[in-house]
């Protein structure tokens, strides 16, 4: 079951196709789309269709969903040609983590060698 906050959340609107977004993958649980401000040649956001605000809001019931996010990331990394050279997966959480959109999202970033941290 999807719980969408279509009025308040930009990522829920992308899932609902009421906001523009280049969607590269979707299934019943997960949607993935290209970041509007890419920081590398490939920058994809992988999100649960259910509105979950952040890692802080996860419960034990979400364990399969989190596994799904990572397996979709792995699949997309292969499709985007990133798997061999590698890539970075990031989940920013809260103000100190640099989270700006309050809908849980996994960044898949690749296509260039990256330093740590990124800013
Ligand atoms: P955060 O800083 O919360 O970890 O990441 C949010 C990301 O969402 C940023 O990289 C930002 O560029 C991206 N973003 C924000 N609004 C939109 C949007 O409307 N569409 C897309 N495709 N990406 C967005
Ligand atoms: Zn949302």
Task: Describe the overall structure.
There is one protein chain. The chain is α+β, with helices and mostly antiparallel strands. The protein has one domain: HIT-like (HIT family, subunit A), CATH 3.30.428.10. Helices cover 23% and strands 21% of the residues. The chain has three helices and five strands, in the order H-E-E-E-H-E-H-E. The protein has helices spanning 10-15, 63-79, 94-97; strands at 23-26, 30-34, 42-48, 87-90, 106-110. The chain has a five-stranded antiparallel beta sheet. The model has no long low-confidence stretch (mean pLDDT 94). Guanosine-5'-monophosphate (5GP) is lined by residues 10, 21, 33-37, 45, 92, 98-101.
Please outline the helices and strands.
Layout lengths: L9 H6 L7 E4 L3 E5 L7 E7 L14 H17 L7 E4 L3 H4 L8 E5 L9
Antiparallel strand pairs: 1-2, 2-3, 3-5, 4-5
Bound molecules: guanosine-5'-monophosphate and zinc ion.
Zinc ion binds next to α1.
Name the helicity range. 10-25%
How many H/I helical runs? 3
Can you tell me the overall shape? globular
Strand segment tally: 5
Mean pLDDT over all positions: 94
Reported for the largest beta sheet, the result is: 5 strands, antiparallel
Q: Could you give the order of the helices and strands?
A: HEEEHEHE
